[in-house]
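User: Could you check the structure of this?
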Amino acid sequence: MGSSRSRAASKSLPGKPLGPFRYFGTRLDDPNDIVPHEHRRELRAVRVFAAWLNHMDSRGINTLDTLVDADDRWLVRHHLLDFGSTLGSAPEPGFQPGLTATDPPEHTRLRRIVQTVFTPKAIARKWGPRIEAICAQLVDQALAEPEVDAYQRLTLPLPITVIAELLGVADGDLVAFKRWSDAMCDGVNQHLDPDIQARTEQTYGELVRYFKAQLQERRGGEGDDLVSLLCRAGQDERLSDREIIQFCILLLVAGNETTTNLVGNGLLALSHFESEQARLRADPALVPDAVEEMLRFGPPSQAMFRQTTRAVRLHGVEIPENQRVMLSIASANRDERHYDAPERFRIGRPQQEHVAFGSGIHFCLGAMLARLEARTLLHALITRTRRFSLAAEPTLVSNPIVRGPVALPMRLEPL
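Assistant: Sure, the predicted structure tokens are below.
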């Protein structure tokens, strides 16, 4: 689109509703109608970033109705005083486990206790070797075939296997655990379909019952799984059963979706930018830098949703109190004012800072685990193949919250 379209958008900004529109936003009932990167670029050109969700169409479906002029990186990083989390991070208020749907002081208390057992050093020390073994097995199995669906064989089984072992899920429960995980991840879009919402609520009830039974077995024990450690966490105060269950469900949903999309989007990028793949293969020490660029270039979480805690004025536009606002992580990570040629996948950028894991008090508690899984799987692939490439067009799931391949046909050429 030309610059005249951007100038027209700029004139429309001072608080005037634009009506249900399709170019500058997305209809939240259509997972295929998402703001692509070229459209986000035009919006950034006029410093349009946040979308104010204040319109319901005739069917009761939210559309992104009024645009607000804001500096994306500032807004993502400094929203705590004006933008609350108690309605959760999804487009519509609904079930939001634990930490993602609390503000201080409750959030401070929960995070303080949980992070005593879920620390980066503890994760790397205890789970690093096991994650290496899981990745080696997955890559070996994938290399046995000339073409594989990398989603089914690599990016999907890795996080669910790790999370199940972290939580001490018995082998006999793995099939049900995988089904619950898939259903809860679908629930990220519970606003889209009443059947999805009903299935999510049913799955949540099954998970609560499952973890309640696990807590009864593990309280007072000396196990080293995460559930047992959470039961013993805290000195002057303990987590309630409800709080432990909420954290376990959060880990199941966020941990699964984050790593699956992070690695899937990264493999897709490396397949398109073959010179960067060759650089990485020539120097595997670049794997950590590659994962950071994967997080910037194709963040697993595309956006977060907050509500205003008071009337907020941003660049001359006022958003009233108690309004839902969408903050685009994907746009912030492609900000031309911060990154040189942001549309290129470039390993080892001097500006490695990104907001894929959020920031501040809501910085992703599982960031270290996601990074460890992604680095380990990528290193195993790079060091055991001459090249990998797409065998056919991938199928992407794309919605206001997450983006990533759900079918990723690839050719893996073994050494």
